[in-house]
């Protein structure tokens, strides 16, 4: 198995995704195999951080004491330019169809992807 690229889950300001060398399937969330064809060890790449808002949900009640200071906050599903969909945080005024760019912000003690509207 190849060495994994560091990303936001490891404290690095980056999003990584995988592409299968056998079938070309693009997937987010690291797996040791391709979810489409089962081929082992798909390759990893860094994402551009560009995408389009697919869904948005404004959270108005803190789930934990650590998130209370962030309320209200927006949780998004973003269709990323590379062909995968991811869940992330974003500006509270984002709407479905908005073109967005990722940055990274601290949230409840962790660095997380945070999308803002492209101008």
General description of the model:
- The protein is mainly beta and 119 residues long.
- It folds into two domains: 1-46, no CATH class; 50-117, OB fold (Dihydrolipoamide Acetyltransferase, E2P), CATH 2.40.50.
- It is 0% helix and 43% strand.
- It contains no helices and eight strands.
- The strands form two sheets. A five-stranded mixed β-barrel has the order 4-5-6-8-7. Strands 2-1-3 form a three-stranded antiparallel sheet, with no helix packed on it.
- The model has no long low-confidence stretch (mean pLDDT 94).
Tally of helical runs: 0
Q: What is the β-strand count?
A: 8
The share of residues in helices is under 10%
Which structural category fits the helices and strands?
mainly beta
Distance between the termini: 40 Å
CATH fold naming of the largest domain: OB fold (Dihydrolipoamide Acetyltransferase, E2P)
Mean pLDDT: 94
CATH classification, class level of the largest domain: Mainly Beta
Largest sheet features: 5 strands, mixed, barrel
| Shape label | globular
Radius of gyration: 15 Å
User: What percentage of amino acids are in beta strands?
Assistant: 35-45%
């Amino acid at each position: 198995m190849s060495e994994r690229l560091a990303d936001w889950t490891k404290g690095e300001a980056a999003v990584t995704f995988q592409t299968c060398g056998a079938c070309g399937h693009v997937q987010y969330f690291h797996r040791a195999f391709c979810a489409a064809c089962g081929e082992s060890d798909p390759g990893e790449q860094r994402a551009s951080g560009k995408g389009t808002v697919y869904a948005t949900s404004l959270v108005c009640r803190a789930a934990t004491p650590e998130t209370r200071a962030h309320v209200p906050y927006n949780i998004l599903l973003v269709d990323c330019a590379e062909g995968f969909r991811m869940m992330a945080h974003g500006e509270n005024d984002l709407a479905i169809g908005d073109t967005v760019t990722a940055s990274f912000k601290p949230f409840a003690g962790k660095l997380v992807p945070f999308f803002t509207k492209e101008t």
